[in-house]
Predict the 3D structure of the following.
Amino acid sequence: MSEPGLFVGGRWSAGSGVSLRSLDPADQSPVWIGAAASGADVAAAVDAARAAQPAWEATPLEERRTVLRRFASLVESNRGELRDLISTETGKPRWEATTEVSSVIGKVTLSIDAHEARTPTTTVTDTASLTHRPLGVMGVLGPFNFPAHLPNGQIVPALLAGNTVVYKPSEHTPAVAAAHVRYLAEAGLPAGVVNLVVGGREAGEALVDAAVDGIAFTGSVATGRALHRALAGRPDVLLALEMGGNNPLVIADVDDVSAAVDIVVRSAFLTAGQRCTCTRRLFVPRGEDGDRLLDTLVDTTARLRIGPPSVDPEPFAGPLISVAAADHARRQIRDLIDAGAVPLTEPVDRLDTAFVHPTVLAVDGVAVPDEEIFAPVLTVTRYDDLDEAFRASADTDYGLAAGLVGTDPAAFDRFRKVVRAGIVNWNSPTTGASGRLPFGGVGASGNHRPAGWYAADFCAFPVATIAQPVPAAGTADVPGLEPR
């Protein structure tokens, strides 16, 4: 561990809560050991953020941009350190951790552009204008799967808008969070503008209960719903939820089987299936073409290297975040098999570890629960009619990502009109997203406050102003006025 778990008011210190440690999921060795933030620690962080906010809002926008550009340069200079921390604490292969670091760096320019586009200062007429103001103090609750990139995508827009931040990372990734906040502080953020509170559920609940003006959350639907309940009756707190998905991918027709399988594999199994945009449900046409695609998919899946980040050559994916997460995924797989699902891949049992090999299950005729399996697990349903497959793919309470593989633009147009999702891709993995587009979903996947390009929207509120230099009488008499 390089830093303690609290950074409050510009000072590092140990938390006063329970003992906490993060483990390397590949070998269960400790990565970070320390004390979690207590409720009192979180309250102190919110107080520090509240005290620092007016001066940070008053700081000229270009100066705020300069600090954040300096942060991007510091991440670039420490690229190897952050990559290794991400890889060690999440189990990601180094190639994937490298792409995450690049996303952290790139997010600054993207956020500056998005802030300018989404929260402009505009003169409408001689007397009417539009400006934007920050919410105030933003609480950010980060996930473990992209422990630097995803919270960064909320922290940077919040700071640009003039908010101050209290950041509670996943308890699985405190070392990444501490390095992330250190780079922000070294970039020149004034004391109290960004604050870190490492901890588990107690710290998260304390942050949500505190006098914050907004909460940005990325994580599971269960936790998102709990946050929604916790903030019931507090309409003054803006809640931005980016949650999971039970995402479909429909194969319509295939000219290039290899290319189609590449899309399926990247959609379903990247990050060991721990992306909210991962495909969970695959729809494949009956017949020889579908059979050939499935045969190739099963062969490719069996050849994927799954292992610790340290092995050479590098693996395609590493472990799940913890043994507990892997055990839960193994139970979900067994439950589906007990319900009638047929494994198309050979089981690779690595019990008592966090490794779960990518698994493909045929589920025709099986009542599959509408839930997200946050692991490399893909169910396959065969279909006879494409529009029937579209309707089945849309049969979910979630609405994050959906994809179609096929050559007919008219079919994709029909697909887009049937599915209800925030991200709809054609001949591209469901895990693919552009930083210049919004990122988020509807239904159980979120509350219509997407991240990505639209993150600026939940960091500031619009102020509509009618202003005249001197008091002016109306153009007509006040109606209903008694004569003198």
Q: What stands out?
A: The chain has 13 helices and 21 strands. Residues 85 and 176 are 6 Å apart (CA to CA). The first helix runs from residue 39 to 58. The longest strand covers residues 128-134.
